[in-house]
Amino acid sequence: MKFNVVSGNQSVSPSPVGDTMAQIKELVSSSPVFLFMKGTPEMPQCGFSARVCKVLDSWNVPYKAFNVFSDENIRQGIKDYANWPTIPQLYINQEFVGGCDIVEEMSESGELIELFNAAYPDLKITPPPPPAQVKHVQPEEAVQILKDYPESQILDVRTYEEWEMVHLDNSIFLDQSKVGEILSSWDRNTPLIVLCHIGTQRSAQAAHFFTTEGFQQVYHVTGGIDAWAVSVDPTLPRY
Which tens digit of pLDDT belongs to each residue from 198-231? Predict the structure, then answer.
């Protein structure tokens, strides 16, 4: 039998297994920062694992991870090893740190920097920037942002039926596949202009979501495409 260790930045060769506790100890000692998770860093299979990966990625530290779905013995064994009933589990310098909530709290408080500095004394560890604040703008202001920052992207969060009815020529219809593409490949400094029909809950929530994902310039269009039709482009149909 073999187990596979995966990493957020490199592939790691499989290692032979023996006693479960010995296997776990070997895994934990294989990297200064090690994560037991469901899925892989590239494709987490639970929200809590994804959140811990997000924290580690935000600190830009090297780490290795093990997909507990690949070995049931290890999946059960780490609960006894750490005396902790849930997964994910993060280890730094072979010491158990905690699960998702604890890791997020320590990241927000800045406590992780001491652990990361001890784990990687030769690396310059810097805290991730705090989440940006959504900026609420009128349609006319959004037009000026598009002029000042040509790389800006307009994200339309309405339903596809609404989109077919009327949309801005240079906007992007936001569905789940597009969200995945944005999160996986877009520069976090890309200015995002988010709108819906009348600029209420749908677009406000979407704008906030993108700030929590690290985007630094997120604008919410007050009044949505309806206000855009009134103050910017009266040729747009209203509904």
Answer: 998 999 999 999 998 889 999 999 999 999 999 9
**Ranges of the chain whose pLDDT falls below 50:** 1-4, 9-15, 17
Residue 187 structure tokens: 């520069």
Please write down the HEC assignment for all residues of the chain: CEECEEECCCECCCEECCCHHHHHHHHHCCCCEEEEECECCCCECCHHHHHHHHHHHHHCCCCEEEEHHHCHHHHHHHHHHHCCCCCCEEEECCEEEECHHHHHHHHHHCCHHHHHHHHCCCCCCCCCCCCCCCEEECHHHHHHHHHHCCCCEEEECCCHHHHHHCCCCCEEECCHHHHHHHHHHCCCCCCEEEECCCCCHHHHHHHHHHHHCCCCCEEEECCHHHHHHHHCCCCCCCC
Measured CA to CA in angstroms, residue 226 lies from 51, 62, 152, 219, 233 at distances of 36, 47, 20, 16, 10
